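Structure first, sequence second, as always.
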């Protein structure tokens, strides 16, 4: 019975290294989209609607990438061609999106251009992101998957840290952080330009240093895994375990990703109001708050990196998962009550605990449950719907909920905290098969 071999640390590292560059692009998008569209003239009650496109495109693109890449075999690999094409398109769009306000468009035309750019950016980021998760599923054995996804989580957060800090760094070195009305500041533009260059270089590194298994090797691994699964079923296991875990983890994902959607959408307006005392996108204070959002999200990434190193020490994955979400929920509940920009480091550091768990644990649970399936990519693409659907629902309801909560954006972050705590409660509904008891 042939099983996947143990891989060295550096082979595991190389499989996920390109994720560093992809995550810089994703971080720039998450930290700056509300800022960009507010600068272009969007009403705060409509901001959440601009966030519908990213998860919608992810829900469409990632299952398709999974489905087609399951059937793709080229001399360049199985997943890598999709990774490279997605990254190349993302690079092109990253040079276009921040220029939506300085092409002499009307406000409506500028926002339409921005929306189209955002649609292509998120489509390409999703196309580049999904192959990394699939390559871990394809190439790493069960014993090393937790380590592989931890490395991926580390690189993800390191990339986020860089992307979040770029606007502040470029402001520090003298690039303008304010611009004419309706125009995105140069500090944001240069952040996207440099992020695009790093993205393509990181992806080139992965494509040059990773050799995917051949169709014959994959067939042998799948046959061995199927034999093992049949033995487990004969010993009293369940053939429906994969679907059961898929749905139960998906319920937790719903609360978690809705919470983070509200963080990405309303953090800028919240701290501009509570710390800088302004909600005017044309003011220097609002743009300074936009830079500080990047710093806070970087603190969140640091918290996530540090907590990710602690997570493997937990013997029970459900306890670790639930505790992480509760701590993150407490962080969200604190944000509206903190009026000092440096003290905001505390709640965002705690929010990083939840983010670390969200990046590693769901995929560990699901890929272990799917071990041996020849449609691993398709299933992981479908699993991405548990990330996208809650964001779409949250975005559609955002304006209505903001009105219900007195049009105070900080109240949306308190709602995010409540959602994470609800997600923590749902963790204990996940089936405890023998592969999911330990992290």
């Amino acid at each position: 019975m042939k099983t996947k071999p143990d891989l060295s640390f550096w082979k595991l590292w190389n499989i996920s290294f390109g994720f560093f560059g992809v995550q810089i692009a994703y971080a720039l998008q998450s930290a700056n989209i509300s800022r960009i569209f507010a600068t272009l003239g969007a009403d705060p009650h409509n901001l959440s609607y601009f966030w519908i496109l990213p998860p919608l495109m992810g829900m469409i693109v990632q299952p398709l990438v999974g489905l087609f890449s399951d059937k793709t075999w080229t001399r360049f690999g199985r997943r890598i061609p999709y990774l490279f094409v997605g990254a190349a398109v993302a690079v092109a769009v990253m040079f276009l999106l921040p220029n939506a306000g300085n092409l002499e468009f009307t406000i409506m035309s500028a926002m339409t251009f921005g929306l189209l750019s955002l649609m292509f950016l998120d489509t390409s980021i999703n196309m580049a992101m999904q192959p990394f998760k699939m390559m871990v599923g394809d190439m790493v054995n069960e014993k090393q998957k937790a380590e592989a996804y931890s490395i991926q989580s580390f690189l993800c957060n390191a990339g986020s840290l860089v992307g979040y800090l770029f606007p502040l760094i470029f402001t520090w070195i003298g690039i303008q952080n304010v611009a004419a009305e309706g125009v995105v500041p140069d500090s944001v533009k240069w952040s996207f330009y440099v992020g695009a260059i790093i993205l393509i270089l990181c992806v080139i590194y992965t494509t040059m240093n990773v050799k995917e298994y051949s169709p014959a090797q994959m067939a042998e691994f799948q046959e061995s895994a199927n034999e093992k699964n049949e033995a487990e079923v004969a010993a009293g296991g369940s053939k429906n375990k994969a679907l059961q875990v898929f749905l139960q983890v998906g319920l937790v994902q719903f609360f978690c990703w809705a919470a983070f959607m509200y963080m990405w959408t309303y953090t800028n307006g919240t701290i501009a109001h509570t710390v800088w005392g302004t909600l005017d996108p044309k003011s220097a204070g609002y743009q300074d708050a936009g830079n500080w959002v990047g710093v806070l999200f970087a603190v969140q990434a640091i918290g996530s990196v540090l907590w990710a190193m602690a997570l493997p020490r937990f013997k029970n994955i459900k306890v670790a998962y639930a505790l992480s979400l509760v701590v993150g929920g407490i962080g969200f509940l604190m944000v509206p009550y903190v009026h000092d920009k440096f003290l905001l480091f505390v709640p965002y550091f705690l929010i990083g605990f939840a983010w670390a768990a969200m990046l590693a644990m769901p995929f560990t649970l699901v890929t272990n449950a799917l071990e041996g399936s020849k449609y691993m990519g398709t299933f992981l693409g479908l699993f991405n719907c548990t990330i996208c659907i809650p964001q779409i629902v949250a975005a559609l309801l955002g304006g209505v909920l903001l009105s219900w909560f007195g049009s105070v954006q900080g109240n949306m972050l308190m709602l995010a905290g409540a959602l994470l705590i609800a997600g923590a409660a749902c963790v204990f509904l996940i089936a405890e098969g023998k592969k999911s008891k330990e992290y």
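Margin note: The two ends are 25 Å apart (CA to CA).
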